[in-house]
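User: My advisor asked me to double-check a structure prediction for Protoporphyrinogen IX oxidase before group meeting. I don't want to rely on an old file, so could you generate it fresh from this sequence?
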Amino acid sequence: MPWIKFVHIMALASWCGALLYLPLLLALSARGPAAATPFASGAPPMPRFVYNSLATPAALLAIASGTLLFLVNGLAAGWLVLKLLAVAGMVMAHGATGWLVMRLEQGTSHGVAPGAMAALGLAAVSMLAVVALVLAKPVF
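Assistant: Sure, here is a fresh prediction for Protoporphyrinogen IX oxidase from the sequence you gave:
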């Protein structure tokens, strides 16, 4: 079953990278249409592309493979509950960036940059908590 762990780690790394990149892209896109041009004519704007094509599939794969690891290995420890709470923080940051993408598409850029930085902070703190809990695996 090492392949499940490999898939989980790769998906998690991709999701974390997208959660760090997407708020910065949103803050740049909120500056105006000149700063947020599509990457090719007729293609969707970058924030929507990154959210729909990169971040969301990576998040779903990370959560599904993590659930599979939990079920196959029969993990049941206190640190796992705390890790899942930290993952919930990452999910909230993911949802917040999706909401900000929709605000930008509706033409409302007011408050997008501060919201993106708040989502970035939540994502970063949650990621650090996940890494700390996985590496330490405290006994409780």
